[in-house]
Amino acid sequence: MFLISIPIENYTEAKWLKLRTVALNFSIFSNVRIPKFRIAPQIELYELLEDLLQLDNSVENLLRSLLCTFEGVLQAEGVDLLEHLVMHRHRFGENITNFTWNTSKYSPYLELSDLCHLFYKYFRDLDQQMRNNVATYKENLKIATEYITVEETLATQNLTTLIREETVIDTPYIQSVYVAVPQQSVHTWLNVYETLHDSVVSCSSCFIIEDNDYKLYSVAIVRDDFLEFRDNCAEIGFIAREYQCDEDEFAKKLHERRKLEEATQYQNIMLVQWLKIIADDMFEVLIHIKVFRAYIGSLTRFGQDKFQIIMFYPRRNATQRLLFELRKLFEEEYMEVTDQSDTEEELEQVPYYPPFLIYKVGLALPEY
């Protein structure tokens, strides 16, 4: 997606028809209507161009940062924010290239420099709003992640979810004990587990399951010696537990986990709604800045009321072809002007500039 500004002085109906034909072949496009702004000195216009270039890049980077920061959430919820920006306008019967200057927010009666400051204020507000929401979201995510991690580690997880009760040795004399062994200490466990207590049954170590941090083993020991065995394990970094079938406790923790998952899901839904709103706001500010840049740049190049700004949304894989055809069209018009110059002196007086001013929207908007 991009905007161009073209000179329209002495622009004939035939030239407009050629331009329209090229545009229709490769894009959706709209002429941009500019309100009547106040006049400013030429030197101020050049200063504004530099400020607007930096502001344009800052707003684009802020929108990219938003997409990158919440990429995981957006993918999990099946939401494409850039597609939302396009489809949101389609639902209201508009194309993304339809533009109306928001005079209630950006009054054209302000000085041009004051308008630039107003854009900066909106950018700063959006930036602060995004920072606050990112911090809140990350803090909530950290709390949820820590809770889930504690619940899911093999050192603390309810054993009833991992082990069938009929496989547990549970007699008045011997019992099964379950030991969470850190991944880096597996070889140590296999070498020393029989020496951790005299009552450990030889060759009774049995691997059950593993996660990123631990491997869970079962071992058979004399029931009365469990506490000593547990303490000996702790000295080496192993975590030993007895099998306890507490269905009420398991149901309680399962309920808490589901509540947490529901709360996290709700938070993600609310977050996505906020992301859609702030993305719309950022995009509106961005397009206004680009249009304003095009206006100021056109004033310095073509003069007051001697240009037309057009917004293009190229079709799929047609961006480069559209730019090529536009350049070709305007270079042909330049050659027509030079051909009409009869003398070498007149030819030298025909200035050559790039055929039009272009302002690209540096976002990976979906193509259709």
From TrEMBL:
Pfam families: V-ATPase_C. GO terms for molecular function: proton-transporting ATPase activity, rotational mechanism. GO terms for cellular component: vacuolar proton-transporting V-type ATPase, V1 domain. CDD domains: V-ATPase_C. Transmembrane segments: none annotated. Gene3D superfamilies: 3.30.70.100, subunit c (vma5p) of the yeast v-atpase, domain 2, Vacuolar atp synthase subunit c, domain 1. InterPro entries: ATPase_V1-cplx_csu (IPR004907), Vac_ATP_synth_c_sf (IPR036132). Keywords: Hydrogen ion transport, Ion transport, Transport. Signal peptide: none annotated. V-ATPase is a heteromultimeric enzyme made up of two complexes: the ATP-hydrolytic V1 complex and the proton translocation V0 complex. The V1 complex consists of three catalytic AB heterodimers that form a heterohexamer, three peripheral stalks each consisting of EG heterodimers, one central rotor including subunits D and F, and the regulatory subunits C and H. The proton translocation complex V0 consists of the proton transport subunit a, a ring of proteolipid subunits c9c'', rotary subunit d, subunits e and f, and two accessory subunits. Subunit of the V1 complex of vacuolar(H+)-ATPase (V-ATPase), a multisubunit enzyme composed of a peripheral complex (V1) that hydrolyzes ATP and a membrane integral complex (V0) that translocates protons. V-ATPase is responsible for acidifying and maintaining the pH of intracellular compartments and in some cell types, is targeted to the plasma membrane, where it is responsible for acidifying the extracellular environment. Subunit C is necessary for the assembly of the catalytic sector of the enzyme and is likely to have a specific function in its catalytic activity. Belongs to the V-ATPase C subunit family. This is V-type proton ATPase subunit C. It comes from Wuchereria bancrofti.
